[in-house]
């Protein structure tokens, strides 16, 4: 979702192909996977849904809904014994105030279905529309992106003196580049129509990543192609109108939580973005990733898992506005802190209704032209793919294309990996045969819409991808062996200052004892209310249901852990980046 994408891809494509993958340790993660349940994930999702309901249907950064979400996550992590901080930063806030208008005035009066691009300016323009000189209809069938419409200043004829509108096709470069070039050529508004390849035909509304002064609206491929054909036959006059609010100095936060155990010179950052888009509550994008890593964090604390690497759970703000939270975090690391981070795991959308088990393609071998991640990324990919294979589950690679919060990490050479269940792209017939679901339909039909509610989740996807996320987190936290040929994660201590001792505002955490927690949502009172100790939990202490009831209820969410959705809760507890900006 961002300008950073071009830099990232340029960096990654210069990296030599990875050496044969070296395996990190095989860690037995069954305890954690059994503890991380769909019921526990959904308990958090319900809270996020309620927060959205109480705050105008959104949890976007810069709104009260986001602030309430961040406060909830911070409370949960502090109660679990983590060292938690809220990292505040300033960002350009954007929202659409009234729906966009796009209509043809002449020669054929037509009202189009449209939408306002994020960071579009406010404006009302009526005038002739001019297409770039490199629109491709029909689109090139090679893998996207392929259209370069608007990516070069020379793609635009100079605008006439009277108000005029530019027509560009989605593809290749960031939307901001297309709009910058159109504005430099003198155009007063821009229409961006979708590219036309499979999965890129419907009306698509992206983000410009930074504020613009002119209106920018979208069109489907069919409407854009028809408008282009009319332009070839003669002058076409259109009316474009938008009304938006842009606050360049709005503040929001990242929530950062460090585990009390693990070597502080070797940090694994496990991240998910906490914000939604303005248009909806974001329960799949990305309440699903947020709820999953929050569940993992709480269960790791509950089980007393002693990490060898420090685990830092990160809940990013303003991802939907160009990965701003994760970018701010990486940008503000000093040299020593940057050197201590050994890996980034990213979880953005894990519950898509028509899901696929996508794994980030660390070695770049998923398709021709896929960028290669920094050294160590291939090994992270193997952690996920080997886990799925051990469970008899298929998976497939998805490229590092800059669409989510791994982007700032790989841009500075930190190895990364993670999972993704699919966004606006269409499921192929081959994928439907492997994963089920419906071919020709989007992975998430409510992506970036008001209907991305708690009813927009596939609990089987949460089960399978949630367990894989738990497995990878614990594997990297506990592995003695690193990614590299000498078995290291990084060179210990060389050139680095001593890791800081983390202090909480109200208490200092120790490695020996965690504070007694209030009862855990989705867990029995017996288990949650006892004092916490480091070390394994005695499984015999768990509350159980009678055999008959268990037999009738088991598998409701794809697992047998009935206590995960018990009703005795004393406290109820992502289009993503690059696609919005480009392609």
**What order do the helices and strands follow?**
HHHHEEEEHEEHEEHEHHEEHEHEHHHHH
Kindly estimate the percentage of residues that lie in beta strands according to DSSP: 15-25%
Specify the oligomeric state: single chain
Structural class by helix and strand composition: alpha/beta
- CATH structural architecture of the largest domain: 3-Layer(aba) Sandwich
Helix content: 25-40%
**Unreliable residue stretches:** 1-21, 491-583
What's the topology here?
Blueprint: H1 4-13, H2 30-35, H3 38-53, H4 64-79, E1 83-106, E2 110-111, E3 123-131, E4 165-169, H5 175-184, E5 189-193, E6 216-219, H6 221-233, E7 237-258, E8 263-273, H7 287-303, E9 309-316, H8 324-331, H9 335-340, E10 341-347, E11 358-360, H10 377-390, E12 396-398, H11 407-411, E13 416-420, H12 429-435, H13 459-478, H14 525-528, H15 547-553, H16 577-581
Parallel strand pairs: 3-4, 4-5, 5-6, 8-9, 8-10, 10-13, 11-12
Antiparallel strand pairs: 1-2, 1-7, 3-7, 7-9, 11-13
